[in-house]
Design goal:
The protein is α+β, with helices and mostly antiparallel strands. The chain contains four helices and nine strands, in the order βββαβββββααβα. The strands form two sheets. The chain has a six-stranded antiparallel β-sheet with strand order 1-2-3-9-8-5. The chain has a single domain, classed as Beta Barrel (OB fold (Dihydrolipoamide Acetyltransferase, E2P)), CATH 2.40.50. The chain is 19% helix and 36% strand.
Length: 123
């Protein structure tokens, strides 16, 4: 159910590692828990985040939730189109990246979950 080319956090973010960069979004499980997404607040490019830091918020008709950085590094890109059409998270959660982080410490990726571990977590 969860793409095997992604890594996952216990906070329900997904991570796609592309060399020294990490694309980050939320999982299908997370979007189902939220319901209809209506607003997305994303950080500024250039901001430095540490693993576990809040980098933004996502709001649905049910709740507002914080988004957590799965790795440490500098935010080098923000998906402005997604901020304008946040409902895309509901229709394509694993294709709707929110931010791109230039990873500061590649070793920080090692404790992310693979697809099977994440599936087990969400059972």
């Amino acid at each position: 159910m969860y793409p095997s080319d992604l890594k996952y956090t216990r906070d329900h973010e997904w991570v796609r590692i592309d060399g020294a960069q990490a694309h980050v979004g939320i999982t299908d499980y997370a979007q189902k828990q939220l319901g209809d997404v209506v607003y997305l607040e994303l950080p500024d490019v250039g901001r430095t985040v540490n693993k576990g830091d809040v980098f933004g918020t996502i709001e649905s008709v049910k709740a507002v939730s914080e988004l957590y950085s799965p790795v440490s590094g500098e935010i080098v890109e923000v998906n402005g189109r997604l901020a304008e059409k946040p409902e895309a998270v509901n229709t394509d959660p694993h294709g709707s990246w929110m931010i791109v982080i230039k990873v500061a410490d590649p070793a920080g990726i090692s404790d992310l979950l693979d697809a099977q571990q994440y599936t087990d977590l969400t059972k």
